[in-house]
Amino acid sequence: MPSPEPGVIDPKPVADRLREIRARIAAAARRAGRDPAGITLVAVSKTREADEIRAAVAAGQLDFGENYAQELAAKREALADLPQLRWHMIGHLQRNKAKLLVPGIHVLQTIDSPKLIEVVERRLAEHDACLEVLIQVDVAGEEQKSGAPPEEVPVLVAAIRACPHLRLRGLMVIPPFTAGAEESRPYFRALRELGAELAPREGERELSMGMSDTFEVAVEEGATIVRVGTAIFGER
Ligand SMILES: *Cc1c(COP(=O)(O)O)cnc(C)c1O
User: Fold this and answer.
1) How does pLDDT run across 112-165, given as a tens digit for each residue?
2) Is ligand 1 within 6 A of the CB of residue 48?
3) Is the sign of the CA dihedral 134, 140, 141, 146 positive or negative?
C-alpha cells in the first residue's frame, strides 16, 4: 500500500480504529446485558490536529473531548464549519478560563466546586445559553487531584439543579493511574453506586468513565460515556 504524502493525513486508520472501538464497546455492553446504543463514545483529541479530527468526523464521530481550554477554543474555531460537532471539556477548568469555553461547548465534564458552578452559571446567563454538566468525583480520595470528594457531591447536585442555565447530566471519574483495567473496576463501581445513591432524576444518570485501556471494564460497570484518545488517534 503506498504511504500518503508527508503532511497529508490518511483518514483510513482513524476510521478503522473507530470501527474497532465501537465494536468492542458493543461487545462489552452485550456481555453486561446492556444496549450498546446507551453508550456515547467521546473521541479525545488533545494534541491532535484539526485534520485528524476531520478524518474522525468523516467516519461518523461527532463527540470530541479536550483537556485544555485554549486548545479546545482554538480547535472549535478551526472546525467552525462543522456545527454538528459536540465539544466536551474533560480537563480541569480554571475559573479564569471559563470565558474561553462558555458559551460554546456542549458538555463540561469536570464541575468540582460551588465556585466553578457560580462562575459558569453567571457566564451562561450573560449569553442566555445552556450547558450540560457532569460532576467530576475523586472517588479514590487523591488529595492533590481535581474532582469533588464523594461526600460533597450532594451539595453540588443541589447547586447545579438550582442554576437555570445548567443541565445536570451525571458523574465523571478519572481513576488513579493503574497498570491494568481490572484495577480500575472498583473505582468505576464506586462511581455507579454513588450515582444511584444520589436519587438521580430523568436525564441525570450519565456515568463518564473509561479510557483507551479501561473502557470495556467501564462499560461492564455501567459507563454511558467513554473517553478514548490513544486507541483512536494513536500514541501522543
Ligand atoms: C487524555 C484523557 C483521556 C483519554 O486517554 P487515552 O488513554 O488516550 O484514551 C480520557 N479522559 C481524560 C480525562 C483524559 O485526560
Assistant:
1) 999 999 999 999 999 999 999 999 999 998 876 789 999 999 999 999 999 999
2) no
3) negative
Instruction: Tell me if residue 144 falls in helix, strand or coil.
Output: coil
111 lines ligand 1 (CB under 6 A): no
Domains for the chain: give ranges and CATH numbers: 11-233 (3.20.20.10)
Could you tell me the distance, in angstroms and rounded to a whole number, from the CA of residue 211 to the centre of ligand 1? Answer: 6
Query: Is 17 near ligand 1, meaning CB less than 6 Å away?
Result: no
CB contact at 8 A, 178 and 145: no
Closest CA to 231 of 64, 87, 21, 11: 21
Cis amide leading into 154 (omega within 30): no
Residue 67's nearest CA partner among 40, 22, 96, 97 is: 97
Q: What is the pTM of this model?
A: 0.95
Q: How far apart are CA 137 and CA 12, in angstroms?
A: 36
CA 230 to ligand 1: nearest atom: 8
